[in-house]
Amino acid sequence: MSFLSCDGSEYTLQGPAGGDDITGLSAEPAHYQLLSELGRGFHNLSLVSMARHIPTGQLVAVKQTNLDECTEEELLQLMNEILLSRLFRHSNLLTSRLVFSSCCQLWVLTPLMAYGSADTLLRTYFPDGMSESLIAYLLYGVLKALEYLHRMGYVHRGVKASHILLSGEGRVYLSGLHSVYSMMREGKRMRAVFDMPHHSPALLPWLSPELLRQDLHGYGVKSDIYSLGIVACELVSGRVPFQDMPPTLMLLQKLRGSHCCLLDVAPFPLGELGGLKVSRSGVDSGIGESVATGSLTHSATAPPADRPQSPGPKNHSATLHNLVQLCLQQQPERRPSASELLTHAFFKQVKRHTRDSFLSLMYPAVPLTSPEDPPVSSPPAPSCHSPASTTTDATEAVWDFS
Can you tell which superkingdom this protein's organism belongs to (predicted)? Predict the structure, then answer.
């Protein structure tokens, strides 16, 4: 646990090409100007701030954790998350790119997710749900990350909208590595595991029936596919299925296979996909034939035909219905793998458009920029107690770190 010591130890990781790469930045606290608080995380022990790297001017996210206030179990969780960050290398997985200690604080730097989390986008800009084109773009990035994790022998166990992050350049990241669990034992891959995620009450709506049962059958990577189906419903409606149910009733509904997530017309049979017509309601067909007329970006002229469109009335495509039904199968063996889902018809539209065309769907959301207000500190003076002792209301945080 040397990285938790107060000796200024550090390590850097190879990051992606482009504006999200922060591996060349320095590991000196005095080189960072804390600009504004983004949120809190890790049992409220971590303060996350937008910061500017003074020598280069690059904006990053800095998570400061007071190690003195962490229990031994929490220190082990921190160590596990950071060690996993050293192991994983994937362009859709948000890992800790630069980690160092200062006094009794652990500093973890990641690229700034300027659009925040999908959960924050829903609550702030899309309370009635996102367009199918934007949903497809976000879920495709998540599936790429899950495919990688599952191939590496890990189950995520925390797939939800607040763990889907979008950078200012339009890159989709899956975060929440603190919930990741290895399925490898003594060099062999287990078919099922039995560990219950920490602080699972907040995760209950997204967890699969087999994980909640905690029986002798255990659960595997298909548990993440179920969670992805719940996320799809969350992004479509702006509401989390099962969220208002007591835990016992929630489990009962899941065991019965109840998943009334897409509250519109009955889905088309899959055999009719080839003959789908343009909907009179103007919704995205889900297969790239975007014809929405109820755009949030109204203008005097029609929007360009070469980009996906913004949300329209809530008649969902047959492909979206089928995707959700496949993910929410009660029996895990009947759910497709992440690799199989990447070839689903719902994601054909992702390959037909550019990252910029999907970013056009973010209106009226705008990426975070450097605030005009005086910074939190300039530069921050090392303190063993400042993150944990600062009391702020994080309910309005623009970036969810739960």
Answer: Eukaryota
72-88: pLDDT as tens digits: 888 888 888 888 888 89
Asked whether the beta carbons of 113 and 173 are under 8 A apart, the reply is yes
Q: Which helix (H) or strand (E) holds 232?
A: helix 222-237
* Mean pLDDT rounded to a whole number for the chain: 78
CATH pick for 2-112+368-396 out of 1.10.10.10, 3.10.50.30, 3.30.200.20, 3.20.20.300: 3.30.200.20
Sign of the torsion formed by the C-alpha atoms of 276, 277, 278 and 279: negative
CB 239 within 8 A of CB 204: no
Q: Taking the model in full, what pTM does it have?
A: 0.78
Q: How far apart are CA 387 and CA 37, in angstroms?
A: 10
Map residue 150 onto helix, strand or coil: helix
Which residue has tokens 């895990």?
332
What was the pLDDT predicted at 314?
A: 64
| φ, ψ at 377 (rounded to 5°) | -155, 155
